[in-house]
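Example 9 (inverse folding). The structure is encoded as follows.
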């Protein structure tokens, strides 16, 4: 028998942020078992557009594109996600900041933030050592081989970006720890944001 899902009257959009390999997509699969919601992966929208324009072959190459090209893909993704998220609860699986060769780029610059207008922001985090191990284990992706210190810095930067996003949209920031082997626990915490 399937799980009983919470069905909520009000409609919310929640932005879920976290650095590559922290486990956002995995945890959101678990969250979707607890609450009726649409999951929209920002990177999928950007990648579909980037492929149409023959810019990249691998989704993990997008963060190495020139800044202007990434910004253009971001804008296009945000416009489409806005349209696709109007009819119910939605979660946008995305990044607080993108680690580009030139430095950290906002994942939700003002134009994107205004288009999505999130009611809530969730920051998925965990021990930097677990993130390095997850990146090494997950051969399906080409994530950066960052050190524990670099991962730690990126997570710290994401907290700064999340605070700015919450300020500009008058939304909340919830930090959810995705501890090793505790995906369901993290998924339930995210589902509760919609209660
Ligand atoms: P990206 O931003 O690059 O898409 P992500 O945050 O969506 O990354 P996932 O793809 O969900 O990350 O997870 C990365 C890897 O870590 C996967 O192999 C996944 O199975 C594993 N993983 C996720 N959460 C946990 C956990 N709590 N314990 C152990 N392994 C986990
Ligand atoms: P993901 O599968 O979530 O890692 O998304 C794939 C890629 O899409 C990321 O590595 C980034 O290059 C890009 N991406 C996702 N969300 C954003 C965003 N908000 N702003 C810019 N790039 C993004
Ligand atoms: Mg993912």
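The amino acid assigned to each position is listed next.
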């Amino acid at each position: 028998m399937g799980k009983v899902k919470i069905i909520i009257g009000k409609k919310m959009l929640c932005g879920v942020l976290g650095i590559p390999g922290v486990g956002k997509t995995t945890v959101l699969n678990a969250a979707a078992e607890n609450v009726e919601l649409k999951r929209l992966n920002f990177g999928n929208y950007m990648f579909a557009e980037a492929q149409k324009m023959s810019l990249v072959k691998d989704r993990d190459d997008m963060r190495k594109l020139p800044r202007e090209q990434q910004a253009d893909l971001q804008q296009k993704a945000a416009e489409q996600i806005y349209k696709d998220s109007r009819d119910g609860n939605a979660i946008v699986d995305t990044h607080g900041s993108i680690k580009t060769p030139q430095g950290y780029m906002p994942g939700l610059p003002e134009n994107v933030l205004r288009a999505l207008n999130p009611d809530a922001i969730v920051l998925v985090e965990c021990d930097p050592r677990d993130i390095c191990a997850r990146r090494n284990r997950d051969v399906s992706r080409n994530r950066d081989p960052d050190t524990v210190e670099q991962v730690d810095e990126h997570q710290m930067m994401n907290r700064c970006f999340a605070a700015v996003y919450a300020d500009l949209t008058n939304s909340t920031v919830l930090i959810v720890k995705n501890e090793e082997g505790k995906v369901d626990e993290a998924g339930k915490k995210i589902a509760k944001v919609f209660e």
